[in-house]
Write a structure and sequence with these properties.
Order of helices and strands: EEEEEEEEHEEHEHEEEEH
Structural class: alpha+beta
Radius of gyration: 19 Å
Strand content: 35-45%
Distance between the termini: 49 Å
CATH superfamily of the largest domain: Threonyl-trna Synthetase, Chain A, domain 2
Number of domains: 2
Number of helices: 4
CATH topology of the largest domain: Threonyl-tRNA Synthetase, Chain A, domain 2
Helix content: 10-25%
Length: 245
């Protein structure tokens, strides 16, 4: 039992027709989906599963199935009625596009931040409200310099694209792996890498915007010394920060 991960090739795809494979404690497993599951620091998608008659089942989160390797579980919102869902049922899977768009903007922004801070990453969280990266380093970071660098890279309108390389290629280029806490999945024979033209190249399975200009106004809201060897950088959308002001 596996799920075809449509979001890997097209992060802008916001809906698809699918067949229910199973309904259980983990949630609803489909044969194909546009819903991104929690992983690589990025939060899972939310949205709805729509039945042919227009009824909908709200989905609060998306996770990789623990019981069925290769399958994705769509986690229903509390109180959702799953009574009409059963194996073989056809549904339309539709993500919350605003939530996904925020994830895409923030995820690409974290890659820009990696290009500005040349140190290994030992923690990451990407949500619709903020993103953070923990860098393995001891020297201080300058918020103003980072904000200026992010603004420059966003304004540079660098194309963002993904491609696949073999595991052998990754082994020959270990410097591509920036994360100390999340390693690229092995065993498939190939690894997905995210390239920001002229800026960054590293393994990543997440969803991203198509151009750095699409990240929009983003700002470093906080820099923390989490430990003697860890500096945490928190990102927010500049429009949100202005709204709070």
């Amino acid at each position: 039992m596996t799920t075809d991960e449509l979001f890997r090739e097209d992060a802008l795809l916001d809906a698809c027709e699918a067949t229910v494979l199973a309904v259980g404690d983990e949630g609803v497993i489909l044969d194909r989906t546009v819903f991104y599951p929690l992983g690589g620091g990025q939060a899972g998608d939310a949205g709805v599963l729509a039945l042919p008659d227009g009824a909908t089942v709200p989905i609060a989160d998306t996770r990789k199935s623990r019981l069925h390797p290769g399958a994705i579980a769509h986690v229903p919102a509390p109180g959702a009625d799953l009574g009409r869902l059963a194996a073989g049922q056809r549904v339309s899977a539709r993500i919350d596009t605003a939530r996904r768009r925020a994830h895409m903007r923030f995820h690409t922004a974290t890659h820009l931040l990696c290009a500005l801070v040349p140190h290994p990453v030992d923690g990451c969280s990407i949500t619709a409200g903020y993103a953070r990266l923990d860098f393995h380093m001891t020297e201080p970071l300058d918020k103003d310099l980072l904000n200026a660098g992010l603004a420059r890279l966003v304004a540079g309108a660098h194309p963002v694209r993904h491609r696949w390389i073999s595991e052998a290629e990754l082994d020959a280029n270990p410097q591509l792996v920036r994360s100390m806490s999340v390693q690229p999945p092995r065993g498939l024979g190939r690894v997905r890498v995210l390239e920001i033209e002229g800026v960054d190249l590293q393994p990543c399975g997440g969803t991203h915007v198509a151009n750095t200009a699409d990240v929009g106004p983003v700002t470093v809201t906080k820099i923390e010394k989490k430990s003697a060897q860890t500096r945490r950088v928190v990102l927010g959308f500049a429009e949100s920060a202005a709204g709070r002001g």
